Structure prediction request, 277 residues.
Amino acid sequence: MSGRLSVVATPIGCLEDITLRAIRILREADLILAEDTRHTRTLCAKHGINTPLRSFHAHTNDNKVDLILAELADGAHYAMVSDAGTPVVSDPGVYLVSRAANAGIEVEAIPGPSAVLAALCVAGLPVRRFVFEGFIPRSGGDRTRALERIAQSAITVVLFESPHRIHATLSDLERTLGGDRRIALCRELTKMHEQTIRGTVTEVRSGLADPARGEITVVVEGKPADGPVEDIDLGALVDEWQREGLSTKEMTQKLQRDLGWKRNAAYQAILDTLKPA
Prediction:
């Protein structure tokens, strides 16, 4: 009988940020596949988890992956964790999940902390739609294309960056997006020295210490829309806002804040929608 691979989200900083189900699964599993066993051992000690650990990371060779798959096929229950957050999101776990799924092995998600969602929660930017870019390329044409893609995106973009490259990335964002695009830079989320800097690209760049420290997530506001977004039913939204008693000004502000519209375009669209047929 085939075994099971549990993809377990673990804290991105504060070790208390773990679900009861995640603790149970980590205790019940036959083995924990850990990106860095030293890091995961600290988490296990905090929560009384005595399950054996085995290293699994970006450099794990195919022979070891094949062994893991064979053990799962024989009925083993393994839990996979990354150093922080939800595995498979910008980490090597996606390869094992893909291989396991193709082999007919049960794969289950044990949801929990995510730096992407945590950053979106505190960014203060439109989050109805967003795209996750992860770490953008370090140089060359791939980096240029990634920056241009972010600049032209009509929806919010979330990206990761290392502390020693963040100032160069902010400089490139300022040049590509313009200095007035709003961003939120979230540093050391859920940790003792947690910091969120909000403002324009220029303001955030000047407000960040040099050198920067810690894990960094950047939320970039989408390019302001000049008119209606195709998948938005503005009429339905306005009807809902009217039932809530919102004024025209408040509706306009919601389009600006939540959907990234320019003020004049938002105000005119509200007026057009409110006109009797």
Q: What stands out?
A: The chain has eleven helices and ten strands. The longest strand covers residues 130-135.
